[in-house]
């Protein structure tokens, strides 16, 4: 492809709204341009990379036995009403009316559409298992689109859906997709981890996220240095790290006297703590460690009042609260809720003396604690010398805290490591959640009608481009992995006006293309320096320069991921490139 013929509007300076390397370089290298917030054009170079990624996805989906189709992006509201999700998703689901004022949604995902199709077309167990997939534009009206293609409002997803007649069948479909994802991300040159994840509103049982390792990633990956345990921080398991507080052994009498609390078996007392609301203030005011305090967080779980307890130096994990209670949503109580439902005051909430209809749940670490300090459910007051089992009831104990550095692996006791990641894939075992909701059934071998057992599997294809650039760039620009680079060779002629250089460059361009090599030929009249800078920015694997030694039939070559260049006889180039 000749530079003059295509459209690669490179920029010398960083765009002001780009906060991450991939966003900066993808705009500067002329791969994407923003049409509106979270909505992007793929320019010719960006589109070639997109098609290369899609080619890899299709090849691996094919190997995994999945069949490609294309579902509509425009869904009648009735479909989403059938599954009950029309009202579950709020502003994020983009909705519109057609000319007859009938409500539609722009597809944010396609469980409903695919289940309706299979319900109509697949009636017998003989047609199962079946895994269908598409590569389709999705629409989600994100509150804060950011980082270019990383979080867009219109984006490209490969979404696959498997239909099985048994749990074992789903396990097989899931494993095949899981393995296909590993192959896809490996071929895209990504360093990634598959981690245990939370299935969120979509429901289902097992689910794994595929995380591309990147410091700007929004997710935190917890993984063990010794065993294979790896999970999203939102549900990574915690243990008591073998150092559970068994207070009888730790609190000496003189220590308890100093802290103004009665000795180990003392009764609780109210302490005036004027305007002491946070854990930090409380530790200073009482001169005690945060691990001697029990923090009470007031929540509404599916609208019901809950007070969750964690040690003062821990963070409550709301995903774990939802899982413990089997709740779909949790939200922090407002000051008004705290007054009305708990009869308490923000900053002074505690588990002692709460109304009976309030469920109190506690992290496992609370179980062994004694003589702790808690809010007194009254302004400017705390209770000291409180014993969990003696002074308040806990309806459920569970692993409710967020893992933190220094915690040990819940599986093997090894050291936990924390990394940031970009979610590029997510696979779910859905079970019958959608097929039951939409009465999508097949007749089994006894003639009995049963709901399909489903799985769903997503890859953020457009997001993948950004994740790859995040992992493959240097200070000068992008460094494309060979399987997805938009072109293989970046051919530069130093002096366009020099007939010898021009002639050799033209013949090389033709020669390379004849061997099927994809060449981007910079035949512009620009200064050599500008051409070299663009070559670094665009990141093609091999730069070939036709310059002053053209008269001797010699060209200069340089790999993008190497600093040294080397010389080569021009006629050997086609062979050399073939073996790149
Ligand atoms: O998309 C999934 C699950 C899987 C992921 C793999 C491919 C198939 N879907 C989860 N999810 C996320 N955000 C959403 C946003 C909106 Cl506005 C919506 F209406 C629905 C969803 C939604 O369902
Ligand atoms: Mg996810």
UniProtKB/TrEMBL annotation:
InterPro entries from the UniProt entry: aa-tRNA-synt_IIb, aa-tRNA-synth_II, aa-tRNA-synth_II/BPL/LPL, Anticodon-bd, Anticodon-bd_dom_sf, Pro-tRNA-ligase_IIa, Pro-tRNA-synth_IIa_bac-type, Pro-tRNA-Synthase_IIa_type1
Pfam families referenced in this protein's UniProt entry, alphabetically: HGTP_anticodon, tRNA-synt_2b, tRNA_edit
Biased composition regions of type Polar residues, renumbered to the chain: 258-269
Cellular localisation: Cytoplasm
Biased composition (Basic and acidic residues): 246-257
Domain called Aminoacyl-transfer RNA synthetases class-II family profile: residue spans: 33-481
GO biological process assignments: prolyl-tRNA aminoacylation
Superkingdom assignment: Bacteria
Record-level GO cellular component terms: cytosol
Subunit structure: Homodimer.
Family stated for the protein in its record: Belongs to the class-II aminoacyl-tRNA synthetase family. ProS type 1 subfamily.
Known role: Catalyzes the attachment of proline to tRNA(Pro) in a two-step reaction: proline is first activated by ATP to form Pro-AMP and then transferred to the acceptor end of tRNA(Pro). As ProRS can inadvertently accommodate and process non-cognate amino acids such as alanine and cysteine, to avoid such errors it has two additional distinct editing activities against alanine. One activity is designated as 'pretransfer' editing and involves the tRNA(Pro)-independent hydrolysis of activated Ala-AMP.
Name the record gives this protein: Proline--tRNA ligase
Species assigned in the record: Paenibacillus hemerocallicola
The organism's taxonomic lineage, starting at the top: Bacteria, Bacillati, Bacillota, Bacilli, Bacillales
